[in-house]
Specification:
Elements (H helix, E strand, L loop, with lengths): L3 E6 L11 H9 L4 E6 L9 E7 L16 E4 L5 E4 L7 H13 L3 E2 L2 H7 L15 E4 L2 H11 L1 E6 L9 E6 L2 E6 L2 E5 L1 H14 L5 E5 L4 H4 L1 E7 L2 E8 L15 E3 L4 H16 L4 E8 L5 E7 L5 H7 L5 H12 L2
Parallel strand pairs: 1-2, 1-5, 5-6
Antiparallel strand pairs: 2-3, 3-4, 7-12, 8-9, 8-12, 9-10, 10-11, 13-14, 13-16, 14-15, 16-17
Length: 331
């Protein structure tokens, strides 16, 4: 039987030690019907040729740099499926890869069109009934006005990820306040405007979100609900950083927290969107309001947080489940 070719797109040097990339590689190379390759978006030429690494043995965090050694040339068309396990932002190299996958109709998880459609936080504007009060702004003036209206909020880029760049801002008695290590710092409107200008400059789609800040979130933590093929795999909470009072996605401070009826209702509403846009793997970040109602704060379709799910639900055997699903897509 001819072996299928699986391409995994990621940058190994940007992975942390707990990333499930290492689990996925170990599981996939154990399949006798698979050839497994790893490459980054920048490894694809304009002609559709990939400078990639064939993987024959498990990859360890400490030796991941060796993935850049002894690469081989493979045509993008020769992959039976490409697993897009790469964090944003979608720069020119990532966009080139997505466009070429679309034009060549190569099977992928997730679908490139879905990544381009749902890959920024601005897609949340389709679900105002599920999210906290949120403004999607493209100018400094509108952002400042939104902060004044909300009075207690977080600001972030539309295409930020991993909890990076999230700022808690208050507006009270005509003054702005930010926070550093839980200490309140007075800020001028000029300071806020400069911060917003930088956010808009860095955002590839030139959009910034101003999102209402729920005070109960730092007490319980963010809840993440992980989804595969439209169904909930499991969920957990990420505990907040003690000093900063916000959840940092990369610190693996996870605890088991089962899905609720509200979680299932939110997934039911989102399921048609995922199906329409070819999103097989996703995660939802949920915050709890003062009246104990879950609200959707983010949709993650790049790196849904399988590592923490594997920690709190080892019985799920995440590596096997995901590779089984990828293999089904190659038949």
């Amino acid at each position: 039987m001819m072996r299928k070719r699986l391409g995994i797109v990621t940058n190994p040097l940007q992975l942390d030690e707990q990333d499930t990339f290492f689990i996925f590689v170990k599981e996939s190379i154990s399949r006798p019907n698979l050839e497994v390759f790893v490459f980054d978006a920048c490894d694809l030429s304009k002609e559709g040729v990939v400078n990639t690494k064939l993987i024959n043995k498990p990859v360890a965090f400490k030796t991941r740099s060796k993935l850049n050694d002894k690469k081989t040339i493979v045509n993008l068309d020769d992959f039976d499926l490409v697993f897009l396990k790469k964090d944003p932002p979608i720069d020119k190299y990532y966009r080139h890869l997505l466009d070429m996958l679309i034009s060549k109709k190569i099977p992928t998880v997730n679908h490139p069109k879905g990544i381009l459609k749902i890959g920024t936080k601005a897609y949340l504007k389709h679900f105002p009934e599920l999210t906290p009060k949120t403004f999607y702004v493209k100018t400094v003036r509108d952002a400042v006005a939104s902060i004044k209206k909300l009075r207690n909020c977080v600001i972030k880029q539309s295409d930020s990820f991993g909890g990076k760049g999230v700022k808690h801002i208050r507006y009270r008695d005509g003054r702005f306040y930010g926070y550093k290590l839980k200490n309140e710092i007075s800020l001028s409107e000029k300071d806020i405007s400069k911060m917003i200008k930088e956010y808009l400059k860095k955002s590839l789609d030139k959009t910034m979100l101003v999102v209402e800040y729920f005070l109960s979130a730092p007490k319980r933590g963010d809840k993440r609900v992980v989804i595969m093929e439209g169904e909930i795999l499991g969920s957990y909470i990420r505990l907040p950083d003690v000093k900063k009072g916000v959840c940092i996605c990369a610190n693996n401070g996870a605890e088991l927290c089962d899905p609720t009826k509200r979680d299932r209702q939110i997934v039911k509403i989102l399921r048609p969107h995922f199906k329409k846009h070819g999103i097989e793997l996703a995660a939802l970040d949920l915050l709890m309001s003062k009246d104990d109602v879950e609200h959707l704060s983010e949709i993650n379709i790049f790196n849904p947080g399988f590592c923490n799910l594997d920690i709190v639900h080892p019985e799920l055997n995440i590596g096997k489940k995901i590779i089984d699903m990828l293999c089904r897509k190659m038949i």
